[in-house]
Amino acid sequence: MEMWTKARWPLLVAIAAILVNLGTLGNGFAFDDVALVANNPAVATMSGVPHLFVAPYGASSGENSGLFRPLTLASLALNRAVTGPGPIGFHALNVLLNAAVAALAWVVLRGAGAHYGTALLGAALFAVHPLHCEAVANIAGRAELLAALLTLGAWVAHRAGRPLTAALLFLGAILSKEGVVLAPLLFWADDRFRGERKRWRAYAGFAGAFAVLAVLRIVALGPHQGAGSATPLDNPAGAAGTVPRVLTAVWVQLKYALLALWPHPLSCDYSFNVIPVARSPLDPRFLAGLAFLALIAAAIVWGSRRSPPVARAALIWSVFFLPSSNLLFPTGTIMAERLAYLPCLGVCLVAGHGGAAWAARGKREAAAIVTVSIVAIAALSVLTWQRNAVWTDNLTLTTTDVETYPSSAKLQAGAATFLGKAGRDTESEAHFRRALDIYPEYPQMHYNLAVLLLKRGARDEAVEHLNRAAALAPDNPLPRQLLNRIRHEREVRKLD
After folding, report:
1. How many whole angstroms separate alpha carbon 473 and alpha carbon 470?
2. 225 or 441: which carries more pLDDT confidence?
3. CB neighbour class for 456 (10 Å; exposed up to 12, middle 13-18, buried from 19)
4. Based on C-alpha coordinates, what's the Rg of the chain?
5. How far is CA 433 from CA 400, 426, 427, 453, in A?
């Protein structure tokens, strides 16, 4: 009975997380899943798993991404070996991992001395939040789920005075995704808030784990230790220089926070030109973002003295967002919802803390909070279920999200590509043209449009786009091969 009493609330949270994400089991491979999971020989057999720990992430493409996530790839290989190559097994494990993270969120919040109601409401909101859909419904979100699970596990072990276990779990976390590398700073701050002055030995294991990661990265990546350079298409702010990058990144932090508070509309893509680059410190977006970061800083300072849950929440947001924020260095993307997975726990903690504090005022207030909480959790659950359905396949995903952000060149290109595969050539051509209107230096789209134009006999315009594709991507042989074929066909017709 005592064991059930301790386990019932995290179990309830886990069940809620499973129920709202069950719809993903019917989804196929979408977005990055195709390259990383379905067509990746590195995860096709268990025999290749040892090599994953000395190879770059996504090495099957022949490119060094500057990323190193061997445990994530190993989990995909094991997943395939147990459940087969179809998508349902991968989706099922993502759902279970997310449920485990939600349950651990309850344990972490409760173990931090948070009020019972704070832990329950915060973890429940985390379990059903729509902003997590990309991490759960997209199989490639496995990196976020594993890193979060192992990081929270390390936090629990650290609190329990088990430094070796904490260090091993932290090592697993950073081998799943490098974005959680600053987690020990949060653990240290949490110790201070709880009045614990642990000796250096309690933190030495984290340094050792980082050293292991550093050595493995050097072996796997060689001198290419940073993430791939920012491209104007994927991260226009990162490619624009230091000042525009930082100005835009400050605004993006507020944009993440707004989505955490009001998760609609959502999108699988925020690349060029969904978020125009901020170039002036007087840009209202930068000023609004700066005010938000000032609020985060104030919450840490004030909360450390007056309200540790508020300080913890602000630190969770800061520690887990900083490596991918583009504030310190350019990353591969300007913004992605999957990156908010673990930072969102901070927002949920604040919501839980506020609700519990209000409920403590009296019976009426408690009844009101319970009602509002039930409505909020139900509404978020519905939004999550609906959003997960959008991730069914690439055609559904791109044609839905391009309606949300028609200014995205990549979404226009994606919609064009998958409409073309579905035989809807007229719609496909329209989206190809919109993609090139937004981003004229998109070589692959010039080539794809040329192929479609040839299909309907528009040779002259096709040649123009092929010439443009060849000029923009001189290392790609396909445009020149197609041009040579067209010239050969013309010569044959002249001879006839």
Report:
1. 5
2. 441
3. exposed
4. 24
5. 18, 11, 10, 11
| Long-range contacts formed by 43-52: CB under 8 A, 24+ apart | 43/73, 43/76, 43/77, 43/80, 44/77, 44/80, 44/85, 45/77, 45/81, 46/77, 46/78, 46/81, 48/77, 49/73, 49/74, 49/77, 49/78, 52/77
Q: How far, CA to CA in Å, does 342 sit from each of 123, 149, 154, 165, 183?
A: 12, 9, 14, 21, 11
Tokens for 136? 């759960």
pLDDT tens digits for range 135-183: 999 999 999 999 999 999 999 999 999 999 999 999 999 999 999 999 9
How far is the C-alpha of 261 from the C-alpha of 129, rounded, in Å? 10
Q: Render pLDDT for 186-241 as a digit per residue (tens, 0 to 9).
A: 999 999 998 888 888 889 999 999 999 999 999 998 876 565 567 999 999 999 99
DSSP, residue by residue, 335-371: --GGGGTTTHHHHHHHHHHHHHHHHTT-HHHHHHHHH
Distance (Å, rounded) from C-alpha 311 to C-alpha 297?
9
Instruction: Compute the distance between CA of residue 459 and CA of residue 454 in angstroms, rounded to an integer.
Output: 5
User: How far is Cα 444 from Cα 472, in angstroms, rounded to an integer?
Assistant: 9
289 pLDDT exceeds 50?
Answer: yes
Q: For the chain, which residues make up each domain, given as ranges?
A: 2-390, 394-495
C-beta of residue 347 within 8 angstroms of C-beta of residue 313: yes
Which residues have a Cβ under 8 Å from the Cβ of 350 and sit 6 or more positions away?
309, 310, 313
- State the fold for domain 394-495: 1.25.40
Q: Look at the chain and count its residues.
A: 496
Instruction: Give burial (CB, 10 Å; 0-12/13-18/19+) of 176.
Output: buried
Q: Which amino acid is present at 436?
A: L
Query: Is the preceding omega at residue 273 within 30 degrees of 0, hence cis?
Result: yes
How far apart are the C-alpha atoms of 146 and 169, rounded to whole Å? Answer: 10
Would you call 8 exposed, middle or buried from its count of C-beta atoms within 10 A (0-12, 13-18, 19+)? exposed
Q: Which of 410, 411, 414, 393 is nearest to 402 (CA)?
A: 411
- Report in angstroms the alpha-carbon separations of 183 from 113, 173, 440: 19, 10, 41
Using CA atoms, how far residue 12 sits from 164, 359, 388, in Å, is 30, 21, 21
Q: Is 441 helix (H, G, I), strand (E, B) or coil?
A: coil
Rounded distance between C-alpha atoms, residue 448 and residue 445, angstroms: 5
Give the DSSP H or E segment for 44: none
Q: Using the 8-state DSSP alphabet, how is residue 229 labeled?
A: P
